[in-house]
Amino acid sequence: MDNDHLALRIRAFRKLKGLTQQQLADRMGVSVAVLGSLERGTRRPDSRLMMRIAESLGIDYDELTGNEQRA
Question: Residue 54: phi, psi to the nearest 5?
Fold first, then answer.
């Protein structure tokens, strides 16, 4: 998945959960600047950071990355 698509998914899930960037950053234990760069697509998260994002949003890693199994 490219950075822009992933960035849009992170932002969309954050907004869907009703969280501000500050709230999600606090849950993840990162700065707002880091989260902002992820949402803009200027920073590519590693798998460990992606897991922290998913956990902080209360969603599965595969749902965040768009790799959910199709029935």
Answer: -60, -45
Per-position b or e across 3-29, b if 16+ CB within 10 A of its CB: eeebbebbbebbeeeebebeebbebbe
Tokens, residue 20: 């501000």
pTM for this entry = 0.87
**What are the start-end ranges of the H helices in 1-71?**
3-16, 21-28, 32-40, 47-57, 61-65
DSSP state of 59: S
Q: What is the pLDDT of residue 69?
A: 57
Instruction: Say which residue the tokens 């500050």 belong to.
Output: 22
SS3 (DSSP) at 43: coil
